[in-house]
Amino acid sequence: MSIRVENISKRFGQFQALQPLTLEIPDGELVGLLGPSGSGKTTLLRIIAGLETADTGRILFHGQDVTNVHVRDRRVGFVFQHYALFRHMTVAQNVAFGLEVLPKAERPSNTEIYKRVANLLEMVQLGHLAKRYPSQLSGGQKQRVALARALAMQPQVLLLDEPFGALDAKVRKDLRRWLRSLHDELHFTSVFVTHDQEEALELSDKVVVMSAGKIEQVDSPQELYSRPESRFVFDFLGHINVLDAQVKGTRLQQGDAWVELPKPITVPVAQLYLRPHEVHLQQVPVAHANLPLTINAVSLIGAEVRLELQPDGWQADEPWEIGISHAQYNAWQPMRGDRCYAVPDIGHLFMEGVTEPETLTWASTLIQDPNFPKRSAHLAEVS
Amino acid sequence: MQTRASLRVGDQPWVKWSLISLALFIVGTLLIVPLVAIFVQAFGDGVQGFLANITDTYTLHAISLTLLVAALTIPLNLVFGVFLAWLVTRFEFPGRKLLITLIDIPFAVSPVVAGLLYLLLYGSNGWLGSWLMDHDVQLMFSWPGILMVTVFVTCPFVARELIPLMQQQGKEEEEAGVTLGASGWQLFRRVTLPNIQWALIYGVVLTNARAMGEFGAVSVVSGNIRGETNTLPLHVELLYQDYNAVGAFTSASLLAGIALITLFVKSFVEWRQARQRRVLDEVSE
After folding, report:
1. Of A121, A126, B61, B183, which is least surrounded by CB within 10 A?
2. Whole-angstrom Cα distance, residue A62 to residue A82?
3. pLDDT tens-digit profile of B150-183?
4. Is residue B103 located within the same domain as residue B75?
5. GO CC annotations (chain B) (predicted)?
């Protein structure tokens, strides 16, 4: 079932939670609402469900106006952040609830309800816990019960409010994958809210990035990542290294740091945004860039080694973060306090008065650096 | 090796033991001795005397009036308390905070003042009372008046118990219920009520104890008509003024007995609630 949000706005007292916004969610898609807290994403989700009433605008399900349809009759599945399981009911009773409160004419027989509940619990792999109470379950199990309970009504729309927010990293990853396969199998339209960009990018067909009650961008994860339309989207999707600089011809300059641009620009100031994997580090500056940095911290968690770097002789609001491979790490053995130079390969230039960035590439630097820093050489140089 | 003196406050044995004995002395003289004395006095003329006093017509009437008032007060306050608690914890509206504060008025006001207020309003010379008089309705100096002031005095008990619990539990479960298609009544019956049942029972126990024991407010509006508007606490006073000490203590021992039962039930319900709260804490983790 497709969902259309038309000109919806909402105000809580003095706070404008949602600016009038319009959004189209095609049938069968899995859409993530991504944004920081206070961006209005949960409010939007609750308005779609009918748990909150919008001040203006309409909600359409499959072309039909449901704005004034009570939440009880909208028949959407809703999964709450803190599960909201009925604490005095067993797992099976929780899942059966939606079927048991149906009007007598529509209600399946008790044996039918029992069968449906058993099937649902099997689907969420919790058949063996049917007689447990919510307080006896782990967070991940509770969330799966909540999902089974929402799916019992066979909704065509499933809405999830930060479904994995309260779970630990590993369980979250498992559940995410599981939800994706469930969605692909059952073909309902799903909308979920998250503040975790990784979750949104991994799970969604389409991501809706929100900030301050507005939609910033609606795109597929790939498009969103490769073509962020605004500074906000850029900032929000992972760490960004920023050089805030003055323009002198083809050169961006700030303190000791400078970067030579492939072509001249006309604005007086600009910001160069560099993603951690679009920069590499080396021992000496290159012809097109001089970005001296001091290593602040080295963390070895994950697929690559992440270095936190402090600008040396220039300023940045946040420390820089650049990833190097483990092979590189083993060869170089960087340590806290070491000095090195960042070399941009791809950059995104934000100019005054333009929301969209201009993407730049420096082809020359993709050649392997012959002076790739080695720990021994570095030590010799320092002493 | 030298043992070091502990520096924790109140750790010296003499402080500890003198505090304990002081507490025991106070509890003994102020609570236990009087309680025992009630029963000793009640049985002053032996078991026969006790039974004779209890089966006295006026005493029996006082008992039945007290039971009637309590039996009517409890359901009224139950409905009112649940309604009020639901209102202030599930809806946002202007004046909500004020309403929560106003619930406590019966606790803050002396019961005698409450009784007087009702007398002035509903008495034969009162604003509403004179109109009611014209329509042959007499509230004061009859049992409906006693019921009215008792309801007033006890009305915060149920709501006071429910409000913090319902605030803590939040409305997520009810929202979940409504997205699953439950009607308002189904929601209350199957989701809200099971979650608040122990707090509700606790509120009822307190309401009952107060409804049976209320003296001040009832004494103002009752008129102390023996065999008509005399409740058990008023009856105790009347008998005492008649120099019938044993009779007075016999009735008092009934009230004391109710108090003891109340304490027992209250402890049991508190224990159940503590258990529920532990479960609640685990759930919210």
Report:
1. B183
2. 29
3. 999 999 999 999 999 999 888 899 999 999 999 9
4. yes
5. plasma membrane
Q: What does the block give as tokens for A140?
A: 């991940």
Fold designation for A3-228: Rossmann fold (3.40.50)
* CA–CA–CA angle A77, A80, A86 (5° rounding): 90
Cα separation of B179 and A258, whole Å?
Answer: 57
Q: Establish if B244 belongs to a structural domain.
A: yes
Q: Which of B174, B168, B147, B128 shows the shortest CA–CA distance to B77?
A: B147
B172, B177, B195 member nearest A88 (Cβ): B195
Q: Would you state the pLDDT for residue B6?
A: 58
Q: Which residues of A79-100 are buried (b: 16+ CB within 10 A; e: fewer)?
A: bbbbbbbbbbbbbbbbbbbbbb
Size of interface A-B (CB pairs under 8 A): 69
Task: Determine the 3-state secondary structure of B193 from DSSP.
Answer: helix
**DSSP β-ladder status, A206-211 and A189-194:** unpaired
Q: Is the pLDDT of residue A15 over 60?
A: yes
For residue A92, the distance in angstroms to the closest alpha carbon of chain B comes to 15
Instruction: Give yes or no: residues B31 and B78 share one domain.
Output: no
CA distance B263 to chain A (A): 27
Amino acid at B148: M
Residue B195, chain A, CB below 8 Å: the answer is yes
Which residues, in sequence order, are bridge partners of residue A16? A11
What pLDDT was estimated at residue A274?
87
Domain boundaries, position B21: 12-42
Residue in the block written with tokens 């999830």: A160
- Which among B266, B69, B82 is positioned nearest to B158, based on CA atoms? B82
Domain of B242, CATH number, reads 1.10.3720.10
Q: Is the pLDDT of residue A381 over 50?
A: no
pLDDT of residue A366 exceeding 50: no
Assigned CATH for A239-382: 2.40.50.140
DSSP element (H, E) containing B37? helix B33-42
Decide the pairing of beta strands A339-344 and A189-194: unpaired
Interface contact flag, A135 B282, Cβ < 8 Å? yes
Q: Does A98 touch chain B (CB under 8 A)?
A: yes
Is A140 within 8 Å of A174 (Cβ atoms)? yes
Instruction: Give the list of residues 6+ apart from residue A37 with CB closer than 8 angstroms, or none.
Output: A195
**From edge to edge, which strands make up the β-sheet containing A257-260?**
A289-290, A257-260, A251-254, A241-248, A269-274, A346-351, A358-361
* pLDDT tens by residue, B249-269: 999 999 999 889 988 988 888
In this prediction, residues B75-91 reach a mean pLDDT of 92
Give the whole-angstrom CA distance, residue A85 versus residue A93. Answer: 10
- Chain B contact set for A72 (CB, 8 A): 178-179, 181-183
- Supply the ipTM of this predicted assembly: 0.77
Answer yes or no: do B235 and B280 share one domain: yes
**pLDDT band at A379; cut points 50, 70, 90:** very low
Q: What percent of chain B has pLDDT over 70?
A: 93
CA dihedral A99, A100, A105, A110 (to 10 degrees): 90
What domain count does chain B have?
A: 2
Q: Identify all chain A residues contacting B284, using CB atoms and an 8 Å cutoff.
A: 82
